[in-house]
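Weekly sync, protein design subgroup
Attendees: M.S., D.O., the rotation student, P.L. (late)

Item 1: inverse folding check
M.S. brought a backbone from last month's batch and wanted to see whether the design step gives back something sensible before we order anything. D.O. pointed out we never logged the input encoding, so this time it goes straight into the notes. Structure tokens as presented (370 positions):
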């Protein structure tokens, strides 16, 4: 049996960013000799596998009191809990007696410090992006327990681009604040538009959650839909002539790691919209299709998570791209597309963040046992 720390991982069910981060962190923690479990729910479970986990605890339908009791029952089996951005569950884990570490991909965005992060016992891991180092340095209460880590990517074999399969990376797409019917409408709108806009001789592969994959199925001719491990996604990107993707930071950094030409799709939330603006403004974007390009005004507000009705009007007016506006914009983006500009993000912010984060967590966990 390993003498490494016993770590229980968790991820917020908001897109695939947190879930993918947990899966990457688990691989690196296992390489450091840690014994691992996972606790979480919803589509985050799509990306968690055994190994590296020895146990996966599904809490999809549990109430908050029931989650607290489940965590109390597990507290004696693990040395710490590492959550990828489920700040509420992290706080519950503290109440259950866990030492807690928090990985945060959006440290650049939050206008506040989350309550669990304010806890002086908590290790805070912030993924680097525009403004992150300045933000962390400016928060005195994080002094001595915040670690800024590079993006959770490892540059591997570069973009080959010889394939004839275009990748549409939607990420997990789902979140607890967005109506499932509207999520599906967005996915179908985007997939049909890309299929209609790319050359007919190219096939289209859609990467998304299991739920969206089931909904889309084989309903769009010339399109395959699936849920893939991250290594498989990177392989698809390496061979693709180019990719269209929602502007989640995980998707952006994956494109950077491969160097594949990437066109950003219309945002589905505030952070995606601002990330797309940031990478475009700083010269790291090959192409961007925004709601405004489709004649729509979408106001994501001040970043509140509630998505109810935010995209309803735009999707209704576009009516499944009945007039071909989105497909036309896809064709336009191909004529002006860059050649893998996102790769410059890794020159600016580095790489190997999963390994760095895992090393920091193991050192912190072992120090707690001393």
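Designed sequence read out in the meeting:
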């Amino acid at each position: 049996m390993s003498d490494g720390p016993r770590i229980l991982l968790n991820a917020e069910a908001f897109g695939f960013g947190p879930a993918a981060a947990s899966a990457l962190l688990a691989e690196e923690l296992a390489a450091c000799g840690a014994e691992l479990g996972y606790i979480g729910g919803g589509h985050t479970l799509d990306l968690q596998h055994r190994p590296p986990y020895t146990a996966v605890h599904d809490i999809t339908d549990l109430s908050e009191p029931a989650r607290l009791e489940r965590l109390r029952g597990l507290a004696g089996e693990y040395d710490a809990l590492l959550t990828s951005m489920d700040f509420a569950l992290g706080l519950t884990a503290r109440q259950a007696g866990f030492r807690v570490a928090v990985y945060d991909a959006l440290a650049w965005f939050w206008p506040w410090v989350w309550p669990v992060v304010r806890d002086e016992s908590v290790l805070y891991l912030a993924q680097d992006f525009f403004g992150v180092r300045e933000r962390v340095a400016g928060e005195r209460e994080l002094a001595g327990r915040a670690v800024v880590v590079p993006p959770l990517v490892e540059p591997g074999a570069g973009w080959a681009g010889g394939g004839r399969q275009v990748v549409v990376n939607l990420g997990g797409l789902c979140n607890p604040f967005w109506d499932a019917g509207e999520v599906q409408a967005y996915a179908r709108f985007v997939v049909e538009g890309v299929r209609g806009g790319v050359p007919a001789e190219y096939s289209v592969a859609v990467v998304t959650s299991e739920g969206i994959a089931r909904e889309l199925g084989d309903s769009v001719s010339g399109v395959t839909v699936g849920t893939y491990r991250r290594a498989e996604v990177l392989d698809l990107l390496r061979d693709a002539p180019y990719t269209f993707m929602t502007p989640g930071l995980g998707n952006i950094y994956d494109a950077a790691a491969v160097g594949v030409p990437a066109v950003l799709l219309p945002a589905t939330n505030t952070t995606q919209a601002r990330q797309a603006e940031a990478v475009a403004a700083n010269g790291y974007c090959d192409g961007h299709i925004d709601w405004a390009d489709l004649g729509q005004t979408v106001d994501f507000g001040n970043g509140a998570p509630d998505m109810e009705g935010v995209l309803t009007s735009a999707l209704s007016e576009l009516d499944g791209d009945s007039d071909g506006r989105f497909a036309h914009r896809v064709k336009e983006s191909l004529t002006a597309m860059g050649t893998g500009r996102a790769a410059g993000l890794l020159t600016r912010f580095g790489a190997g963040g999963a390994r760095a984060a895992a090393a920091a967590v193991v050192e912190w966990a072992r120090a707690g046992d001393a």
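Discussion: The chain is about 40% helix and 15% strand. The longest strand covers residues 165-171.
Action: P.L. to compare against the previous round before Friday.
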